[in-house]
Design a protein that fits this description.
Helix content is 36%, strand content 15%. It is α/β, with parallel strands linked by helices and 350 residues long. It is globular. Bound molecules: pyridoxal-5'-phosphate.
Length: 350
């Protein structure tokens, strides 16, 4: 092809999605194992009947509902086509070519991708020995070129979380012109009371942005909707760099309907948390090292054994997510699914 492409995109890592394998259970994408609740499905069906119409470009009703739900000014909220879209919009809104974006590694695999797409330079900072964000090293990695830091709390894929004192001490060290994005995709699965709700930090730290998603606890991963809470000017810019109509009408209606049944959704998340704890304990009993998880998945830091373990799981009809050569992430499923996974883990030849 003679069309010149951006040469830097040759280095763009692919986003590797968890595989769906017919006949095997999928514990590879941190989805909830349950479908959307009936009132949510009804809202989707009702809205689908008007599928010939464009969605509300301003996502007005959902934004107003989120503002009410979280007691926030609606001007601070930007809704996106999943929170991953908002990660990309954040880089586009804030970074100029050559600016730096700091994030932990390993962490959510989209961070290096969206940084590069947004013409910024990703600066990965290794997790500490306990697979937790090394906030001291991240603060030290901030240079005059840094415009943004992603803090994934709890961290995908390790499940580990940073606590309030450490996070606040970090925020106090970050210059005010650097945006700190607290990505809280798994907030509803956090049980450690010392792990802060990022929304409570916004008042004291005006450079903080909180990201949330409807893909996990709300069981709407296939509909693509998430939101950012940001300073009003940044929220407005996030909206303006968005692809028009990218939050489709089914997603908007489903998200509102999900907020109507939040109590039931949270109760189901609590079940998932109990299963996570059971899986974690059983794995440790089997001799695996498992860092404490605050999310809906667990991390097995298997190093060079990563691929062999994931292939063994697949032979036992369980799809896990391998991040070779670091480890394997396993989502908490139903009790039966988790039992199947645990028997695969028990029969893994080591
Ligand atoms: C930490 C984190 N942030 C953001 C996302 C993106 O979620 P979505 O785009 O489905 O809202 C994910 C998805 O796995 C995630 O793990």
């Amino acid at each position: 092809m003679s069309v010149p492409l951006r040469p830097d995109l040759a280095a763009l890592p692919a986003y590797v999605a968890g595989r769906t394998v017919p006949g095997a259970i999928k514990l590879a994408s941190n989805e909830m194992p349950l479908p959307p609740l009936p009132p949510v499905l009804d809202a989707i069906a009702r809205t689908a009947a008007a599928g010939n119409r464009y969605p509300d470009i301003g996502v007005t009703a959902l934004t107003a509902r989120l503002a009410q739900e979280h007691d926030l000014d609606a001007a601070r909220i930007a809704v996106g086509c999943g929170s991953v879209a908002l990660c990309q919009q954040l880089v586009q809104a804030v970074c100029s070519p050559g600016d730096e974006v700091v994030f932990a590694w390993r962490s959510f695999e989209a961070y290096p991708i969206v940084s590069l797409i947004g013409h910024a330079r990703g600066v990965p900072v290794p997790l500490d020995a306990g697979h937790v964000h090394d906030l001291d090293a991240m603060a030290a990695a901030i240079t005059p070129s840094t415009r943004m830091v992603f803090v994934c709390n709890p961290n995908n894929p390790t499940g580990t979380a940073v606590r309030r004192d450490a996070l606040v001490a970090f925020l106090d060290r970050v210059p005010e012109h650097v945006v700190v994005v607290l990505d809280e995709a798994y907030r509803e699965f956090v049980t450690d009371p010392e792990v802060p709700d990022g929304l409570t930090l916004l008042g004291a730290h005006p450079n903080v942005v909180v990201l949330r998603t409807f893909s996990k606890a709300h069981r709407l991963a296939g509909l693509r909707v998430g939101f950012a809470v940001a300073p009003p000017e940044l929220a407005a810019t996030l909206r303006s760099v968005s692809i028009p109509f990218s939050v489709n009408s089914l997603a908007q209606a489903a998200a509102i309907a999900a907020l109507d049944v939040l109590g039931q959704l949270q109760a189901d998340c609590d079940d998932t948390v109990r299963e996570r704890a059971r899986v974690e304990a059983a794995l440790r009993e089997l001799g695996y090292a498992v860092p404490p998880s605050e999310a809906n998945f667990v991390w097995l830091p298997l190093g060079e054994e990563t691929t062999r373990f994931s292939e063994h799981a697949l032979e036992n009809k369980v799809v896990v997510r391998a991040f070779s050569p670091d480890g394997v992430r396993v989502s908490a499923g139903t009790p039966e699914e988790n039992d199947l996974f645990l028997s695969a883990a028990a029969s893994f030849p080591r």
